[in-house]
Amino acid sequence: MGVRSSAEEKKLLALLLESVSLARQREPMKASVLYFPFRRGCVALALSGKRELCGNLIAAVMGDAGVERLLFGEFFRCEPFALVKAEGLRPLAETWDLGGFRRLLACGDGYLREEATACGDAFAYSLAGSARGVRVEGSIAPSYWSREQIGEAAKLSGFRAETPDSRTVVAHSEGFYLAVKLSAPARFEVGEAEVRFEAPAPLAIAVAGARSSSAALSLAEEALRDPLAGRRAEQLSAALAGAPPPLARDRRVRELWRYCWYVLISNRCSVDHPALRKPFTMPSKYVFRHQWLWDSAFHAIVLSAYDAEMAEEELLNLFHAQKPDGRIPHEIFLSKAMCKAFWGVDDYSPWTTQPPVLAVAVERILERRFDEGFAKLAYEALARYDRWFSERRDADRDGLAAYIDYLESGWDDSVRWDGARERFALDPGRYRAAYPEARMAPVEAVDLNCLLYLQRALLSKLAPRFGGDAEAWRGLAERTAALVKGLMWDERTGFFYDVYEEDHSKVPVKTPAAFLTMFAGIAERDQAERLVEHLYSGFWTTFPLPTVSRDDPRYDPKGYWRGRSWINLAWFTYWGLVKYGFSSAARDLAARVVELMAEGPTCNENYNSATGEPLGAPDFGWSTLILDVIADAARRGWI
Ligand code: GLC
What is the mean pLDDT of residues 410-435? Predict the structure, then answer.
């Protein structure tokens, strides 16, 4: 991806205008807006090579010609959605801005022009131009994890679809309806788990989702009459105008800044849902389409600089979902069917939690704006949550909690858990006695306990105000910190390691989780100095910080949590370095990560640590933590 230069913009505009006049001569459809004209004072964002678009629950990914994938929350996944079938297609130009996506293709001796846009719960796509014999093929289906599961997904979600006329499909999945309206008659094939369609170009397609079929239909009809580009651009531009101004001097960093705000804002959604009553931010509308616990904590941290109330709101569903035993769940699915297909649990949440970053987010929000009501709510929820860790994740009652499930750790496939998974496989019963749901030998993880230390410290600060026992929380916090230092530090290698709960032996894997001891302020000065040596050796890759030290034989720069780099870990480490006064290391880390993200700009889920190549989900929420790093680094004059 790249930001367009004005010369490129002019060239593209000329091409697009030329195509409009060609189209006007030969085709019946009205040429609509190709280049969205921003009014003065509007915030503009134009990127080249970007192919993702989203509205509220609706999201689409453009293919090389047509729409590769269309998603509606976790209820529908239409793939392909609208593939363009034509001989001799050649891309000429494409553009993405706050109005939507536009592309010009050569096709034989004619042209094709595509426009796609999304706003609210509707999406519109059109294909027009002078080329002849062009067809569009697509499908409408329920959400599924893998194609093989589509039949099971259809059953679990109660998928059904009908075609009331030759231009319309209405599909149902788990209480939601998706209406698809075409401008020309199509050939439909209605199956148990999928509807396929084929229609000739020129063609416009509008799609909308809603809680009732009539609402979905009228939204789709409206989107067909009045494509949504203008509304979308206005809404996004107004939202971006509310973002804090970029302090950085570098133009590319300023573009990255604006783009990351777009990512965070556009990932927000609201839905009429029993477990997700408040608006929240999806980690990525293209891949991760419900609410996750630690993701939302990170989102709230960034949002606190945008609007403290929005940041509070980001956490409310999670507090609301707290279980009677105090656990705050790992995730809240939009779709029970998807939760069932993934976890085998007939609910919106599984049995796990996730890294307790909530307290860090709460503290950040309260620093920005101390709202008594929110503070009380958070205090009470966190106090119950913390007790749950003591009761349900600390079988040896030493004050250090353990992860008993790799997915609970947030570091799904990490090398950190290889040994624990092997131990478990040899004798599951041994671990299930204390933890009936365990899927690995319990590991007292360094990052988990640093986060719990911070949670306990926050609880001790808030306790006097809300009638709690500050001393008890302080005592527990200090005990946690002392145990991290006492049991997890290895003097020989100068590093902090996770330990197995059963024997407190160290898990011999170096990961950036150790840097959370600086973030939490637990590491002693000389320990921190040794950590910085590791930062510049095992973790100093093209894109720092790989999720396992590169001297580990299992280090794979592209491996999921096995060597890729993630922005949340860079964020923790940046603030740890700042806290201990390692200014040049903090500056080096910020500069490297910002430089590579600005190259796109990209805001991906993770990056190849050896090459910097963006990987994983695009427009990933917690990668916007880089905004917090940029703000601080720019204030210090480092960027
Ligand atoms: C993946 C990550 C996990 C994250 C989730 C949503 O499962 O491993 O940490 O919370 O995606 O982004």
Answer: 98
Q: Are 156 and 197 in contact (CB under 8 A)?
A: no
pTM equals: 0.95
The model's pLDDT over 236-278, given as tens digits with 9 standing for 90+, comes to 999 999 999 888 889 999 999 999 999 999 999 999 999 999 9
Residue ID of nearest Cα to ligand 1 atom 9: 410
Kindly tell me if the per-residue pLDDT of 586 is higher than 70: yes
In angstroms, what is the span from residue 110 Cα to ligand 1's centroid?
45
Segment 19-68, tens digit of pLDDT: 545 444 443 333 333 444 445 556 789 888 899 999 999 999 999 999 99
Kindly indicate the confidence band of residue 14, based on its pLDDT and cuts at 50, 70 and 90: low
Q: Which residues have a Cβ under 8 Å from the Cβ of 3 and sit 6 or more positions away?
A: 46, 47, 48, 252, 255, 601
Q: How far is ligand 1, taken at its centre, from the CA of residue 410, in Å?
A: 6
Q: What is the pLDDT of residues 153-212, one digit of tens each?
A: 999 999 999 999 999 999 999 999 999 999 999 999 999 999 999 999 999 999 999 999
Best residue among 286, 295, 318, 354 to mutate for probing ligand 1's pocket (most ligand atoms within 8 Å of CB) is 295
H helices of 227-357, in order, are 229-241, 251-266, 293-303, 308-320, 336-343
Between CA 577 and CA 584, with CA 578 as vertex, the angle to 5 degrees is: 75
SS (H, E, C) 552-612: CCCCCCCCCCCCCECHHHHHHHHHHHHHCCCHHHHHHHHHHHHHHHHHCCCCCCEECCCCC
Evaluate whether 473 touches 462 at the Cβ level (below 8 Å).
Answer: no
Pocket lining: 295 vs ligand 1, CB cutoff 6 Å: yes
Mean pLDDT of the chain: 94
Q: Is the pLDDT of residue 293 over 90?
A: yes
Least Cα distance to 542 among 595, 598, 585, 586 occurs for 595
- How far is it, in rounded angstroms, from Cα 499 to Cα 486? 11
For position 24, what pLDDT does the model report?
Answer: 42
Q: How far is the CA of 623 from the centre of ligand 1 (A)?
A: 12
End-to-end CA distance of the chain: 22
325 neighbors 392 (Cβ within 8 angstroms): yes
Helix (H, G, I), strand (E, B) or coil at 470: helix
Q: How many whole angstroms from 473 Cα to the centroid of ligand 1?
A: 30
Q: Is the CB of 227 under 6 A from ligand 1?
A: no
Q: Return the amino acid letter for 372.
A: E
Distance CA 283, CA 232 (A): 21
Residue 309 phi/psi, 5-degree rounding, is -70, -40
How many angstroms separate the alpha carbon of residue 183 from the centre of ligand 1? 39
Contact call for residues 34 and 16 (beta carbons, < 8 A): yes
